[in-house]
Design brief:
229 residues, alpha/beta, Rossmann fold, 2 domains, six-stranded mixed sheet, two-stranded antiparallel ribbon, 9 helices, 17% strand
């Protein structure tokens, strides 16, 4: 459920999204990507009203996303997964699609595994492939859904380094994550959702220190750069 959530995202912005389970974070992503049709409200992207735009149309416009559980085509190679995203998501074909796909794999450190079946990848590499497939659609805004979940501390550092590099391309990032230390090392702004509503929006450490956010997390855990707060 997402109810009355209002915010703007500028080109090149890096914004984290936190909140307890059931807060409406994934529903918000579904509304932006087109997987969920909202009952009310407005959603615009680059001056275009997205109300009637399909998932594929939004992807071609530049809205890319990853999923919490990576969903590669397991019997295809790593490269073929990225290539399909370039051709079907970005509608790029021929030599340009090959360059785009390989460039995305290079960006996430998977070029050496390009010919490996996607189903044989370990979790870190599956997360990287999920990111590469999203990048192959040539996004202007990238929705990251718990991409650091399940990774070791060292793997989280590797992944956040890659994500920080995307900002130099002007890609706007909206990142749902329970591993808050990953957000604190990457994002410039933090949103906190609870019960489908926006309860805080601002500088990451100020948001986490606010009484409203602390109340939301009572009985839960906020994992910051020092461990559990």
């Amino acid at each position: 459920m997402a109810d009355g959530i209002t915010f703007q995202l500028e080109p090149g912005a890096s914004v984290g999204v936190v909140g307890p389970n059931g807060a409406g974070k994934t529903s918000m992503f579904g509304i932006i990507s087109g997987d969920i049709k909202p009952d009310t409200g407005t959603l615009s992207f680059a001056g275009h009203d997205l109300h009637r735009a399909s998932v594929s149309a939004r992807c071609r416009m530049g809205i890319g996303r990853t999923y919490q559980v990576p969903q590669p085509f397991e019997h295809m190679t790593v490269f073929e997964n990225a290539l399909l995203a370039a051709q079907q998501g970005a509608h790029v074909h021929g030599h340009d699609s090959y360059e785009m796909a390989y460039g995305s794999l290079e960006r996430v450190g998977l070029a050496d595994l390009a010919n490996r079946p996607a189903g044989s990848l370990a979790l870190l590499h599956r997360k990287r492939l999920e990111l590469a497939r999203a990048l192959s659609t040539k996004p202007r805004i990238l929705l990251l859904d718990e991409i650091a979940g399940g990774l070791t501390d060292a793997e989280v550092v590797e992944l956040t380094t890659i994500i920080r590099g995307l900002q130099s391309d002007g890609i706007a990032i909206l990142w749902i994550e329970h591993v808050v230390r990953a957000l604190l090392s990457t994002v410039d702004r933090l949103l906190c959702l609870a019960n489908g509503a926006l309860v805080a929006d601002g500088e990451p450490r100020e948001v986490l220190a606010s009484d409203a956010v602390r109340t939301v997390y009572l009985g839960g855990k906020i994992i910051n750069e020092h461990g559990v707060a």
